[in-house]
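ESCALATION

Customer reports they have been waiting on this structure for their group meeting. Please prioritize. Original submission:
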Amino acid sequence: MSLYDDAVLVLKGYEDQQELRQAYLDHLAAHPDGMWKACRAGHLTASALVIDPERGRVLLTLHKKLRMWLQTGGHCEPQDASLEAAALREATEESGVEGLTLLRGGPVRLDRHPIPPPCHCHFDVQYAVVAPPGAAHAVSDESLDVRWFGYDEVAAVADESVVRLLDATRARL
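Update from on-call: job pushed to the front of the queue and completed.
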């Protein structure tokens, strides 16, 4: 199965955010290259909130280009077998944390947002991943910093989309 086919199946199975979910499906139907950064009309991305539920915290990355505290994530790559695999790869690469596990149940949220050129628009499929106990993190080339924040600290440092993702993740836990 191709990554495109996986994305369509994942989105068809996602039961929340019906209007936005349909916009994602319509975008893919209109743009067969809608999984890739080269699609200038916008493209799907995969992200993951790294969470440590036992200690009530999340690991955020200070994005190098946007200079904002965000969940890990990014563009899909040809070797990604699925959106889940892309989200897990991005989380591992950007956090430096080994042994992350996806939170069951598929995507936690969808978030469509404008991005500075050349990308223009990301149709982000957002997952959550659980960090193993005592996980060590590292700053990647794509980040200025990587830091743990308590659940109650996220609203003060991060974008509202990250707060919504955290709330949805906590509800699923």
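Sent to customer with the following note: The first strand starts at residue 43 and ends at 52.
Escalation resolved.
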